[in-house]
Amino acid sequence: MFNFDFYNPTHIVFGKDRLGELDRLVPANAKVLVTYGGGSVKKFGILDRVKASLGGREVYEFEGIEPNPKYKTLIKALEAVRNNNIDFLLAVGGGSVIDGTKFIAVAAPYEEEPSNLLKFGMNPNKKIKKAIPLGTVVTLPATGSEMNSGCVISYEDGKFVLMNELLFPRFSILDPTLTYTLPQDQVANGIVDAFIHTVEQYVTFPAEGRFQDRTAEGILQTLIEIGKKTIGNPTDYDARANLAWCATMALNGLIGAGVPQDWSAHIIGHELTAMFGIDHGKTLAILLPSVWNVQKEQKHAKLLQYAERVWNITNGDETSRVDLAISKTRDFFEDLGIKTHLADYNVTADKIDDIVKALERHGKTALSETRKVTLAVSRQILEGAM
Ligand code: NZQ
Ligand code: ZN
C-alpha cells in the first residue's frame, strides 16, 4: 500500500425529512446565497422547503447553473456575492450545481483573474487562500462532489478540474426522497458514474490495498444489485438510499487512499462532453470497456480479481474470464438504458482526430495508473469505443 493522507471534514446528514435541519447546520447570522440549476428544485418544491428552513436569515438566490457548469455562467454570481457580503453558499442540486458553487466559493475571494483558477498549466492551488464556506442539498446521487474537494468547470473548449481542501462542503444533506423526481436516464447516469469512479480506483494493478479493494467490490456489487431496481421503482426508499450512499463513498477519498488510480475514462470523457455535449455518465460507459480492452495486459491481475469477486466468474481460462467480465460490465450499462458506443451518439470515426487533438491541447498526454496512455493509446481507446 502506498503512503497516503486521508482528510475528509464533510458532515453527512443522511435520510428522510432532514431538510428542516438546515437551521441547525447553517450559521445563525449567515448571509446565504442559495444556488441551483435550471428549475427542477423550484418545480418540485425543494427550494421553498430550503428557504423555509433557513428562517429569518438574509437569503439571496442564484439560478441557472447548467449541467457541466460553465465559467461564464458562474462569474455572474461573483458580483452578487461581493455586493451582498455573502458568507455562506448553499448548493441545491446535482453535481453541476455543487461544482459550480464550489467554483464561486473560491473565485469570489480570489485576488487574480478568476479564469486563472482553471487555465491549463497553472497551478493555482497554492494561491487559493480563502473560500466561502458551503453546504449542499443533494438532488442527484452520482458525482460524490457532496463529500469531496473537487469541481469540474467548463471553460473555453474543455472541462477543467480544480481541487482544493477548502472546497470540502461543511455539510451535505442526502435525503434519498429528494431524488425521486429524477428522470430515469439521470438515475442511470448516476449509477454509471459511481460505478466507474469505483473501478477507476480499483481496476489498476495490485497494491495490497485489501480494505480498499473489498470496499470497492462492495460498492460495485451494491450498484449491480440495486441499479435496475431503483430505475424501475424510483420510490423504493432503500434502493435509492443505497445508490446515494454508494455514490458518495465512491469518490470521497476512502477507496482511493494508498492505491493506484486510472482516470483515463474520465479525462477522455470530458473531451466528449465538451465537444459533443454527451452527458458525463454516458461518456464513461462508452469509454470504460475500451479502456480495459486496450490495457488488458497491465490490468490483468485486477481484471481477473474483478471478474471473480464482483461477477462470480470462476470458470474458463483467465483470458476468457476477463473478457466475460468486460462484456458483463457493458451489458450492465446497456441494461440501465445507457448506450455504450460512440456511434450511438452520432459521433463518427472521422471525429477521433479532433478528440485526440483536444487531449493534446489540454496536456492529457500521459494517462492511467502507469501514465502509459499516450495520445496514440487514447486514439486506440476511442477507436475501440466506436
Ligand atoms: O438543472 P435542473 O433543473 O436542476 O435539472 C438537473 C439537470 O438537468 C436534473 N436534476 C437534478 N436533480 C433533479 C433533477 N431533475 C429532477 N429531479 C431532481 N431531483 O438533472 C440534470 C443533470 O444534473 P447534473 O448536476 O448536471 O448531473 P450530475 O450530478 O451527474 O453532475 C454532472 C457534473 O458533475 C461533474 C461532471 O463533469 C458534470 O459536470 N463531476 C464532478 C465530480 C466531482 N466534483 O467530484 C466528479 C465527477 O466525475 C464528474 O466529473
Ligand atoms: Zn464522474
Task: Report on the architecture of this protein.
With about 375 residues, this protein is α/β, with parallel strands linked by helices. It folds into two domains: about 10-180, Rossmann fold (3-Layer(aba) Sandwich), CATH 3.40.50.1970; about 185-385, Dehydroquinate synthase-like - alpha domain (Dehydroquinate synthase-like, alpha domain), CATH 1.20.1090. Helices cover about 45% and strands about 10% of the residues. It has 15 helices and eight strands. The protein has helices spanning about 20-25, 40-45, 45-55, 70-75, 75-85, 95-105, 185-200, 210-230, 235-250, 265-275, 280-295, 300-310, 320-335, 350-360, 375-385; strands at about 10-15, 30-35, 60, 90-95, 135-140, 150-155, 160-165, 170-175. The strands form two sheets. A six-stranded parallel sheet has the order 1-8-5-4-2-3, sandwiched between helices. Helix 11 packs antiparallel against helix 13 (about 320-335). The model has no long low-confidence stretch (mean pLDDT about 95). Bound molecules: 5,6-dihydroxy-NADP and zinc ion (ZN). The site of zinc ion has 5 residues, from helix 7.
